[in-house]
Amino acid sequence: MNDQPKISPTAPATPPFPEPGVPVIRNINWAGSWALYLKEVRRFMKVQLQTVWGPAITTLLFLVIFIVALGGSGRTVMLRGQAVPFADFVAPGLIIMGMINACFANASFPLMVGKVQGTLVDYLMPPISVGELLGALVASSVTRALFVGSALWAAMALWPGVHVTPAHLWAVLWFALIGTSFIAFLGVLTSIWADKFDHNAAVTNFVIGPLALLSGTFYSIDRLPPFFQGISHANPFFYIISGFRYGFVAAADTNIVVGSSVLLALNIGLGTLCYTLLKRGWKIKA
């Protein structure tokens, strides 16, 4: 009996495919991120009259008021020594302002409402990482902003006396992307901090609204005293609107490279802050 060769046990063969029903998530859960992104997009598209067309029509009324009621059709604005018709000057600013408001409204909504309604677990339980959660929320907010911007651009393109044909399409797309991404991160940060609708409304009314209106949307900062020009340069919304307008009229209030660098730095900073707070569960996890 002792002379018989010993047979070493062999490890069970690994099946080439996982067992049915067993999820396999490698580096990035693309399916989960895409599902959350679609959920957020479908959420605002179900009420698109309120979330897309309503803001577009409201912003379009600003154009009508400034051009028709104030007689702006014959005015020009000096932009770095270049005379730009007032309608062509104000139209890009109104487009990006509508995109900013829509983007912030979308990004600041999900987590805050989850706290109020007790459905925050729907964002915490799925098998997605913090980065994937943050990316889906930001991407859906940027998507809503692009929908609003596209609707506004189409309406203004049909308006007589307004020229919104891009002079530099790359600048339009680039500043629309980094500008709305910055606003989306700001909205997510607000959604993390806010515990009720009043908190959200306070940021909208006392931060987003004033910064958007005082960012050179309706005027060139060259007409301001030096002190107020310096204040305008401290407003990140100014770089969004100035760079976006450059894409249409080929002139800007500031160096677009500087503006792009400032916005990129703000995106990185706010994105890192949002990621850190979500990772720690600040005001999210009990």
TrEMBL record:
Entries under InterPro entries matching the protein: ABC-2_transport_permease, ABC2_TM, ABC2_TM_bact-type, ABC_2_transport
GO cellular component: ATP-binding cassette (ABC) transporter complex
The entry's keywords: Cell membrane, Membrane, Transmembrane, Transmembrane helix, Transport
Subcellular location: Cell inner membrane; Membrane
Topological category with respect to the lipid bilayer: Multi-pass membrane protein
Domain of life where this protein originates: Bacteria
Segments forming domain ABC transmembrane type-2: 46-281
Similarity-based family: Belongs to the ABC-2 integral membrane protein family.
Name this protein carries in UniProt: Transport permease protein
